[in-house]
Amino acid sequence: MKLIQGIEAFQNSIQPDMQDRFSQLESGQSPETLFITCSDSRISPNLLTQTQPGEIFVIRNAGNIVPKPGTGELAIEATIQYAVQVLKVRHIVVCGHAKCGAVGGLLDLDSLTGFPAIHEYVSKSKQVLDVVANCDEDTKLDEAIKANVMLQLENLQFYDYVKSAMDAGELELHGWVYHFGSGRVDYLTDQSTMA
Ligand SMILES: [Zn+2]
């Protein structure tokens, strides 16, 4: 199995080279950023951001969706709460990506009738459909991907502790769209404070 071979290669070459770093991580983590992105296999958050283990706390799901609090999505809600209230991250990045299948499904909900869980999940971003209602077909997906990122940034601000950390100047939200074909990242919000 390819993954097991990868583990062996990691243990034989990477782990010894980075032993100091990994030993340090045994005492805890203090990531500066909560990185919320799609489960899409073409995105590698650490590779894209050139970060090391311990530097980004990650939530991944189909379509990088952040449901509003109180909607029963406890896996996501608890992870956001831990990141903000316990780890006290200073940034939350919502990173969408080009060619996102989840957003594509949202634009064609009829195609998801055989996939009830996916249908219900991506429908949480239904407001995006209003934003792109007048877009040309050739730009609709790209615009929906951006609108979907912006919607999640809005949803995050419904979490009381997110809003109060923002108001206290301790937390900033950022929206990105990653194009894996070219490596380009579109910054949809101000990035000036990200060191
Ligand atoms: Zn995606």
CATH superfamily of the largest domain: Carbonic anhydrase
Q: Name the shape in a single word.
A: globular
Here the CATH topology of the largest domain equals: Beta-carbonic Anhydrase, Chain A
State the strand order across the main sheet: 2-1-3-4-5
Q: What's the total helix number? A: 9
The radius of gyration computed from the alpha-carbon positions, rounded to a whole number of angstroms, is: 18 Å
Brief digest:
This protein is 45% helix and 16% strand.
Descriptive account of the structure:
Helices cover 45% and strands 16% of the residues. With 195 residues, it is α/β, with parallel strands linked by helices. It has 2 domains: 1-28, no CATH class; 31-187, Beta-carbonic Anhydrase, Chain A (3-Layer(aba) Sandwich), CATH 3.40.1050. Strands 2-1-3-4-5 form a 5-stranded mixed beta sheet, with helices on one face. Strand 4 (172-179) and strand 5 (184-187) form a beta hairpin. The protein starts with a helix and ends in an 8-residue tail after the last strand. Bound molecules: zinc ion.
